[in-house]
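Now read the record:
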Amino acid sequence: MTASAGAWYRVGKVNVTNGVKTISGAGSKWLNDLVAIAVGDAFTVDAKTWYEVIAVNSDTSIVLDRGYEGGTAAGVNYAILRSTSGTILTRIAGQISVQFNQKQLFLDELRNWLTSTDSSVSLTDSHGNTYQYKSLNNIQALTGTVVSRDVGTSAGNVMEVGAFGLGNTKGVRLENDNGDTISRTGTYSTPAAWAGSPYVGTNTDNQGSLQHNQSFALAENYATQTFISMSLGNRCFFRKKSQGVWSPWNEIYHTRNTVGTVSQSGGVPTGAIIERGSGPNVKYSKYACGLAILHGTMQFDWSSVVTQDLLSNVDFIAPPSIAFSLNTITAVTDKWGSDIFPRGMGVKSSLQQIVSGRSGLTSVSYTLTGYWY
């Protein structure tokens, strides 16, 4: 703490010894305060007994005009009444000195803050309190230097909100409606027809969002794209460009399109991975690889010879393999397991029942396994 000119000086504490003229200070700045103590000022610890200061040896040592008359003690509160140092002229000179010294201290500390390579520096307020702050060099190391940039979409520019579709309230249309030639990383809205789209020609499924990512090191010859269709199918596609050539679109499967309607075009799957369905007494599963499996049940009457088509709602491209089991509903007197056998019938299948004087009903459970393309 720094004392002000014209005030009683009470900075720190003193140690006093009975009969000794020299007074020791603790935390005092008697010699180097902005308004220092001067010979002729008055010293007291109880405001009753006064001593004249006859010498100021240092910030922590003054000499009185006679030996201290009180008891020996340490850490005692005291006061110095300015006499010589408290005259009008001295006060004015002290105030001016305080202002100049504070200004110079500020400039010195500011210069140090601007140029110091230390992580932190000391700054002093007008009351003499010192605080630690990060130096300018340290702040720049943490946040980067301040630079100026042009606003625009060229390399090195500062982008405005909405550039390349970022932060905009409305989508940015794909440049020239061409996903094959675009070279700017960004998010774009696509129309029903655009070059490079997953669906050929004009198709509402082509309407959606295209995310284009350009390679930072390999220029325009390498890039990736992700397309999300706005159709009800929630379909998502991915492709990449290598050495200037785009790969075919690959569909990304997720929880909304793994199970659905399978389809194919030219032997290439174009729909869901799995299709599941059912009908009267049948259930089936079709897979994107072309495999189809159907489970069904039927009843046969042993009282007559019949040839009956198996129930199936899967169109196999060739007769499927058949596995079956028999469950007797009405008791039969002789062996029958070999009397029922499969017979291929184009894209369908049948079981022929050969009966010789038998009666009763039999339930047949069967499984057809084949390919739908």
Summary: The radius of gyration is 49 Å. Helices lie at 88-115, 136-143.
